[in-house]
């Protein structure tokens, strides 16, 4: 039987383990952070296609939403929710343009008046003149999803750090870890920001942007935010236990900052924005999670055959949205299906 190693136990490795197991493949996962990943454990978890860099990226993201629905049918207990997003990151003409662009792509967009926004979000302090509502969008906690998918896949998980890949005659033969060597016929790197270091020995340079992300959780509150809310200076959602979950940067998907700033300053600024969004509520800091977002140099996913036979790559930002669809298509390719046109714009060869 083919020995397949997936390196990484975040949402990407977990989704691949699930898809390969559905195709009858036995999978072993090797990961430093076992079952829940690294970026996956600090994610906002917003599932959307309203943010995109080009049309192939939009289509991949939109298919990503559909793939989440398929996953929920396969595993009905997954905690994915579809509350929609109320969006006014841009206002005025820029908001109209966003609505027109997304509608032209076939995305569902509802235009809301001030009164309609107030009716949907009675707890909101400052109510915008207009907003967009994207009913197809939702939330999945990638770390929880990863744990569920790994359990469902039946994959063996080894908690170890891969120090290097081994190869012979241009074909991958396994990995060397801090606990010893593991032989394999296939190695799939779902290693997020850890990927470039593992590819160096093949002479392959994977450029990655430096994009630190900080996610803040507040104390539990009564239900005040029934949607994903995206305002010009703050994105926020409320989890099932009532905590507000809020990135510390405005518009975190397009965040270009390479540094975070001092934690107390950043956390306080975020809390102040949340308090002004939801006045009259006792909003406090509960805990935070921080990770580097795994953003390849051009912002787009890197998916497909790597620089050796039997070596495959799956590295992406917006992995909460994208990992399930990427895993469906990549698992098919890995097990012998023709190359998927959906992944055509995201191949590793563009950096060679
Ligand atoms: C603050 C923040 C907010 C985000 N918000 C969103 C959002 O709203 N919507 C969205 O779609 N996406 C969002 N993302 C992006 C999304 O969370 C990530 O794209 C996704 O979690 C990446 O998952 P992954 O499994 O590829 O990587 P990770 O979760 O980082 O997992 C990588 C795994 O590889 C392992 N690993 C790495 N190197 C090695 C090695 N040498 N040996 C062994 N194991 C190794 C790690 O231990 C880890 O288990 C956000 C990310 C962050 C950080």
Question: How would you describe this structure to a colleague?
Answer:
By secondary structure, this protein is of the alpha/beta class. It has 2 domains: 4-46 and 143-207 and 297-351, 3-Layer(bba) Sandwich (FAD/NAD(P)-binding domain); 85-135 and 212-292, D-Amino Acid Oxidase, Chain A, domain 2, CATH 3.30.9. It contains 8 helices and 19 strands. It has helices at 11-22, 55-74, 92-104, 114-120, 142-153, 195-199, 263-277, 319-334, and strands at 4-7, 27-31, 46-47, 85-87, 110-113, 130-134, 138-139, 156-159, 162-168, 171-177, 180-183, 186-189, 212-220, 228-230, 235-238, 243-247, 285-292, 302-305, 311-315. The strands form 4 sheets. An 8-stranded mixed sheet has the order 5-6-4-14-15-16-13-17, sandwiched between helices. A 6-stranded mixed sheet has the order 8-2-1-12-19-18, with helices on one face. A hairpin with a 2-residue loop joins strand 10 and strand 11 (180-183). Helix 1 (11-22) packs parallel to helix 5, helix 1 runs parallel beside helix 8 (319-334) and helix 2 crosses helix 8. The radius of gyration is 20 Å and the shape is globular. The two termini are 32 Å apart. The mean pLDDT is 96. The structure holds flavin-adenine dinucleotide. The site of flavin-adenine dinucleotide has 41 residues, from helix 1, strand 2, strand 13 and helix 8.
